[in-house]
Amino acid sequence: MKFSWKNLLLWSLPLIVISFFIWQGLFAPITNDNNNIANSRMTYGRFLEYIDMGWVKKVDLYENGHTAIIEAVGPELGNRIQKIRVELPITAPELITKIKNQGIDLDAHPIKNNTAIWNLIGNLFFPLLLITSLILLFRRSNNSTGGPGQAMSFGKSKALFQIEAKTGVIFDDVAGIDEAKEEFEEIVTFLKKPEYFTAVGARIPKGVLLIGPPGTGKTLLAKAIAGEANVPFFSISGSEFVEMFVGVGASRVRDLFKKAKENAPCIIFIDEIDAVGRQRGTGIGGGNDEREQTLNQLLTEMDGFEGNTGIIVIAATNRADILDSALLRPGRFDRQVNVDIPDFKGRLEILNVHARNKKIDPKVSLSIIARRTPGFSGADLANLLNEAAILTAKARKNQMTLQEIDKAIDRIIAGMEGTALVDSKSKRLIAYHEVGHAIIGTLLEDHENVQKVTLIPRGQARGLTWFTPSEDQSLISRSQIKARIMGALGGRVAEEIVFGESEITTGASNDLQQVTSMARQMVTRFGMSQIGPLSLENEGSNPFLGRGMGNSNEYSDEIAVKIDQQVKYIVEECYNKTIEMIKNNRIIIDKLVDILIEKETIEGEEFRRIIEQYTEIPTKA
Asked: Where along this sequence does the record place binding of Zn(2+) (predicted)?
């Protein structure tokens, strides 16, 4: 913090005040330092005895005769003159007479009036010091808010303003989202060379909305724009507009756009705009008045009466479904850019970017990692390489190998590795359960390939079977869904066939939840049942109601009964087929279980080679 006398005064004021009162309490009552010269004390009665015995040579009276410092000499005192303090009673008329009769030297010392100075300091100096400090405080508040009478900066925008934003990120550092990057490269070109576009009548877009799941690189794109464009850059979060005081958010919006107009052309980046841009008048009990006023002001500033020429508003959100429709229309956000989960090519590019500062074994192929991580976002891939680097450092290795990367993938997906099982009965039961999943997935043509089967616990799972998901998950056929249902039922069926119905465990509870969910979606959403091609349930509930409160049935009780019947029919059909497959391949299952118990982990290629020794594996699509 920069040094200034004002800051020094403001910080030292409390210490000065506290020190003053401590001084007053501890030292002001002491009116004469001579009281402290006596090293010992004596009672009043003993003092009178000393006078009678003629041992007292001198008496000095202090504090209006309430305290005496005597000089005495006698055998008890080692025949040396000593000074002794005596507390005298309020009324002692015989004392003075006794002292005079003995011819003792008597002297009285008046009280020194030091309190007048302290009273002056306390009544004049400190109030003046407080008033001066308050004046400085108010002046600093007024200077920070830009107007008189504003002691607090509630209405001031908290946007981070940079003339040349040096974020350390440029477009070359953004990978895996080429379509979104092209959109923003065009905007940067517009800002740098607007004459190319205005010559044909094009106008600069007013707003661009980035939509996508968390971790896909929306904020990274904004940093790249700030690094590429040589224009002022304002960065703020949507939550910073909302305060407990009504009107503060709208005031901050006005202040932000006022600064932006003064520095146009410029870019305003609003991260997590859903914090302030939610639909108005929604929710139980009505809307939020403060947030709605803030949104109204934002709508007015983006495309109001005055307009904002040269200001580009870039916003990011992963909740586009809850944004107000007035905010999404052209003229406010002219473009909506989807930043999706990267495909194989995108993941490979992202891994190349994040591998620049990592020491990776040359034998490791990033394309293999990219193929093993479908569904990973850019943030997931960055975290993957970081976790692998941590594991490499723990192992005291100089370079990252595929072993550390595989462990990092398993840790991110399933959690930390647990202690290996030692109970032979539990271990064999879990082995049959996992092999049941894996063999059904391998022998079904429409199921994904097995990647790994392991008995090493991770997270809450006592064992795991990994499947390599297909690259395209947007379109799934009826046969693929049924294959997934059968694969999920494989573990439960293997337990039943091998150990009997009485030994079925709770290990398949999560599998059964997935099975029921897939079967119900086939009936109610995808039209894959005898009820017909009807969509009976929405994909998601109302985001402004509590969980389950917006899921009201839009069908009759008769249809509800048919839905339950069809769900049960689909699950039973898949269950019976799974039982048949497990029984027909019991010899292979027993062999695989023995190998799995011995090795604890079987990779997908080895798993398929063992099965091929006994039966034919269908070719996957």
From this structure: 433, 437, 511
